[in-house]
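User: Can you help me understand a structure? I only have the sequence.
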Amino acid sequence: MPRKHKKRKKTYTDQEIGDVTDIKDVEMREGDEYSSDESSEEEILRVHENRKQRAKRITKETVKQLKTEPKCRTICFRYFLFVIVLSVGVAMVVQLYTTYGEYVTDAIFPPRTSSAGLVCANGTVTNDYMLKWHAFETAHNETRAGWAKLNATKPKDSLTIAWSNSDTPKLMPTRWKSKKQLEVFLGGDECASILVYSI
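Assistant: Let's start by predicting it. Here is the structure, written out as tokens:
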């Protein structure tokens, strides 16, 4: 009569469990095993797979990785689209400025005083703003009338007004000799107020 072997219950010692003797740590380890079932099954299958299965698995993983990572062509196409959109945006801004730039500039920046002052034929300039005396050129020796030359900067679009400071004011002729020199025609002892507007 054969002997019946009793199955022994395996008892775990501290060495088999490891250095962990706390029950909570053992429970945490068991919880980790349950949470990583899928990964452990994959590891077991990898150990027992043959060459064909291994090649198939590596191929699938490579294809999956290539699908998730963007290709060089895709990245280049994205940069190309970005450059096109940026250049179209810049072209639109330039076109808008050429069409409406002057109107917007005139609306935002109203006319401003570029130069101003009170000039007399004897060479004095008072209440001056960006206006300096340069010289006086006599046109008529008898009346001592002539052109008073003044240092002033001519704006791109300008309006120049000069009028006499006598009891009956009258407009005085003005002209720009160069971009840096303004001339006003004055009588012998006349004084004139000058305003140069940038419009």
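Now, to help you interpret it: Residues 14-28 have pLDDT under 50 and may be disordered. Residues 112-198 form one domain. Let me know which part you'd like to focus on.
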